[in-house]
UniProtKB/TrEMBL annotation:
Enzyme class: isomerase
Protein name: peptidylprolyl isomerase
GO molecular function: calcium ion binding; peptidyl-prolyl cis-trans isomerase activity
Organism: Irena cyanogastra
Every EF-hand domain range: 454-489, 499-534
Domain of life: Eukaryota
Length: 538
């Protein structure tokens, strides 16, 4: 009788051989005395055949039924279920009992379909693979018995391809459909949906079932545009970015599977660029339009609007990019100073002008509210001569036409502030500045171009009064003493806010026309006399 001994049965047996199945198995064939008459191992290939269709000797047809992949059986077949009284001339004698040591490697049925087993699926799955999508995935490829024939992990590079348009074997085209990024699934493919009777001519033999353990890393469609997910939009948004604006923003850049490839936070510096001008990848150019200062948004960029098929640096080719951005500030090169008055006294007749000496308090911050500096914390006012270049140009503009007691907010674009370089350790480059100002004191300045004016009539013998020793020459000491006396007695007034010695020295140098350190009566002229002479010359 037919004898079947199970020498090894795997723990897992998802399916067993049934009549009509196609099997691939290895075997050793021997006579009862141990003499070997055949071996698939010697040929280096499995024996491939349908079971129960008369393609095998009757004993083997029966012995294979119920076997699992990786199961090993020892089979004794009597002659009546083998080659009978005729045998096989030169190989198997008549009435021979045959012993087969069988190892089942593969089995499938012509009615099989692609089998998909998902063993991990992300909680969030906003999108699944559809026909014509482009995907990037890793895989391990094995046969049914677990033998590895290929792995993208070993190459340290994803497999990148279109789905459903014939770039893959049909079974993989089907098996990838419906996957989410991050999903892991096992795809089992029968040979007629894989490499068929011929195999691939290399690692995959003919009629082999294939098992792919796949993790999907990325997916997009060539028709995709960018996707924007608003994460935080400030309640107050007076202005949104437009083409030509200059933005400062922080970002984390990741791939779709969450792999970080870049971050401005790690450099502790914002990324600064023009928008809509081609200074950044096309998808980012588009994604940064319409943002508010302080806004946080996620921008998802397909590769054809990112770094394309080639990739860049840590970014692989054909990768979808995810940028989580935080807009710190933005401005336009055409922007001027913006002034918002919060309080103005009812009696506001004297307005600040160029040359006035001002004392004021301020809080200085960035557009996102980051405090840079405050006079309140120092316990003293900031004092300047308006229009003299003692502060940035935008502040000179923002302090114009202000009255004592007035409070205002002055917003200064970087080209009227500290420019592209900023102030190291204090003000970032290209930063918009916000000053909350309160004017506490105003001392009216002198007319433009004057450092000293008379409060009354000018003496006709002015030079003689200054020349105290009457030697026809005025030295700096004499000049300085005379000016000090005029100021102290109220007869004259110096421009407020400047160092007395510097002003006097400057006035003296203007009179000392030959530069010899002395002023003579011929050199000495008042400002209005100089103006008349210049007019006559013209």
């Amino acid at each position: 009788e037919l004898s079947v001994e199970q020498r090894f049965v795997p723990e897992s047996c998802p399916r067993a051989v049934r009549p009509g199945d196609f099997v691939r198995y290895h075997y050793l064939g021997a006579f009862p005395d141990g003499t070997r008459f055949d071996s698939s191992y010697d040929r280096g290939s499995t024996f491939n055949v349908f079971v129960g269709k008369g393609q095998l000797i009757a004993g083997m047809d029966q012995a294979l039924v119920g076997m699992c992949v990786n199961e090993r059986r020892f089979v004794k077949i009597p002659p009546k279920l083998a080659y009978g009284s005729e045998g096989v001339p030169g190989v198997i004698p008549p009435n021979a009992v045959l012993h087969f040591d069988v190892l089942l490697v593969d089995l499938w049925n012509s009615e099989d379909e692609v089998q998909v087993q998902t063993y991990f699926k992300p909680e969030k799955c906003p999108r699944t693979v559809q026909v014509s999508d482009f995907v990037r995935y890793h895989y391990n490829g094995t046969f049914l018995d677990g033998t590895l024939f290929d792995s993208s992990h070993n190459r340290m590079r994803t497999y990148d391809t279109y789905v459903g348009i014939g770039w893959l074997i049909p079974g993989m085209d089907q098996g990838l459909l419906g996957m989410c990024v991050g999903e892991k699934r096992i795809i089992t493919i029968p040979p007629f949906l894989a490499y068929g009777e011929d195999g691939d001519g290399k690692e995959i033999p003919g009629q082999a079932s294939l098992v792919f353990d796949v993790v999907l890393l990325d997916l997009h469609n060539p028709k995709d545009g960018i996707a924007i997910e608003n994460q935080l939009v400030p309640e107050s948004c007076e202005r949104r970015s437009q083409t030509g604006d200059f933005l400062r923003y922080h970002y984390n850049g990741t791939l779709l599977d969450g792999t970080l490839f870049d971050s401005s936070y790690s450099r502790n510096r914002t990324y600064d660029t023009y928008v809509g001008k081609g200074y950044v990848i096309a998808g980012m150019d588009e994604g940064l339009l319409g943002v508010c200062t302080g806004e946080k948004r996620r921008i998802i960029i397909p590769p054809h609007l990112g770094y394309g098929e080639e990739g860049r640096g840590k970014i692989p080719g054909s990768a979808v990019l995810v940028f989580d951005i935080h807009v710190v500030d933005f401005h336009n090169p055409s922007d001027s100073v913006s002034i918002t008055v919060h309080y103005k006294p009812s009696n506001c007749t004297v307005l600040s002008k160029k040359g006035d000496y001002l004392k004021y308090h301020y809080n200085a911050s960035l557009l996102d509210g980051t405090l840079l500096d405050s006079t309140h914390s120092l316990g003293k006012t900031y004092n300047i001569v308006l229009g003299s270049g003692q502060v940035v140009l935008g502040m000179d503009m923002g302090l114009q036409d202000m009255c004592v007691g007035e409070r205002r907010t002055v917003v200064i674009p970087p080209h009227l502030g500290y420019g592209e370089d900023g102030v190291e350790g204090e003000v970032p480059g290209s930063a918009v500045l916000v000053f909350d100002i309160e004017l506490l004191e105003l001392v009216s300045g002198l007319p433009e171009g004057y450092m000293f004016v008379w409060n009354g009539e000018v003496s006709p013998n002015l030079f003689e009064e200054i020349d105290q020793n009457h030697d026809g020459e005025v030295l700096l000491e004499e000049f300085s003493e005379y000016i000090q006396t005029q100021v102290d007695t109220g007869k004259g007034k110096l421009a407020p806010g400047f160092d007395f010695e510097k002003i006097v020295k400057n006035m003296f140098t203007n009179q000392d026309r030959d530069g010899n350190g002395k002023v003579t009566a011929e050199e000495f002229k008042l400002k209005d006399q100089e103006a008349r002479e210049e007019h006559d010359e013209l």
